[in-house]
Amino acid sequence: MNLGTQHRLNVEQLDGVKVLVSQDASFNLQTTRGENPEELLPKEYSWLSLLGSLGVACKPEKWTNTSNFENEVLAVSGQFFNNLNDEQITALLKKNVMFLDGESVQILFERPTLRTLIDAEKLEIKRARTNYQSYEQIDGMVIDQIENPRVTMLQHTGDYYKIAYEDANKVEILSSAYSAKAEKLGPVMTIINGRTVILPMNTDPKYGWESQYYSIKAKLLKLILNKTTDIDYVVDMAGTKITASSNQIVLSNFTIDDQKQIQIHLSKTKQQQDWKLYFHEGAKLQELAVKPEWIEHDVLTIPYQLKGLETVILLA
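Request: output the structure for the sequence above.
Response:
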């Protein structure tokens, strides 16, 4: 704790996916029925909760009318786009890597000139628990030793936004929705033009995105990050959160299970740095020089057993 206070993390200087939020969100929400005060609650933090829980470096980023993002990795969910005009949305999508959810795509369709930004021509909203969609399948992959792994679309999940795309050459479909009879219904996780990633779901009023908190989906998202960005994240360390700046990484194991070793996918800049690991044994602070031992996909492996509920600090 003393070491942490000497190297305080500044939120403004954190690395990772920037999850855009607006302090004016409730003013611009379009309610469904206008009956329940909970309809005014923003859902702009969905990506922050999901990515943080899956061990991807991320941070909240406040949007103002003077905000200008270029060559960044950004994430938008809920009705955040309702806070922006068409020109601002266009600039975000053309100049950055963007992660969008279903509600964000719906707003693009509500403004006809914007749907071309994701090369989409048709949108259908398929409500959860209507016996239309049953599961999401990642075709042609093996994850956790499961061939063509599946994720439920029946329980603890939002509605499915079925998107038809105009130009198949611009769209990489990584997973698809299926019916209970194994009929392919449409795309789920997609990458458009190599820079716009779409998770076509909205937020369940009770369960949020709980169905996405799954090791199979975590590995798929990290595969997508490898394809589109240069972001720090942990590898095979379930329940471990990473917070990173240019010269500091904090790892916190939020489970009671020990992690056999530390594995971090580092951005290219951090790969060139020398790091020291700081941890405690009893009341003593220990220091370990980290040798650059790399495995595939730019993953740094540190032979240190991260204990349950333990936090360690890496300093460059």
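The chain has a mean pLDDT of 94.
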